[in-house]
Amino acid sequence: MNPRHSSNTCEWYTPLYIVEAAKLAMGSIDLDPASCELAQAHIKAALWYGHNGLSDDSCPWAGNVFLNPPGGRAPVGYGTRSNAVLWWRHLVNRYREGHVKQAVFIAFSIEILATAQPGEHWTLPLDHTVCIPESRIAFLDSVGNPSDAPSHANAIIYLGERVEAFCGAFRSMGGIWKGQRL
What we know:
The protein is α/β, with parallel strands linked by helices. The protein has five helices and seven strands. The strands form two sheets. It has a five-stranded mixed beta sheet with strand order 3-4-6-5-7, with helices on both faces. The protein has a two-stranded parallel sheet with strand order 1-2. β1, α2 (37-43) and β2 (47-48) form a beta-alpha-beta unit. It starts with 15 loop residues before the first helix and ends in a 5-residue tail after the last strand.
């Protein structure tokens, strides 16, 4: 096993400065589909689901979505080895269907830019607006302590029409691309 990919938990929380930038970019957070009570202390989405937000049909996705998916491997039978790719594909499907108006997707690892592309019918992260933070995100543990040695380069992906608002909210964190650097 690659130690760079190992962790005692798949529970890593988004730092507040990123949550605030997502709220600024989208105007609000209507749904956080992969969350918990602890994370909602600062995300404060109008609606949130636990990890069943992906598999439970009674958990509709709509409006402005903030998504920091759980890490680790996807359950057997989902056709991908990455939980992040599974959540990405679900988000894209809801966006294409018109249920999700806009979204901010937090990619724990920039590797999703490669692993999310094994099919011609999938929308790739690079088809949308992407911020590559200039430094690795120090995700928070369950007591709010930042990781002391973030192991992955990250990406923050925006789906929606408010590209300028996203750029304004995230430009100070790193480079932003949509087909070319913006």
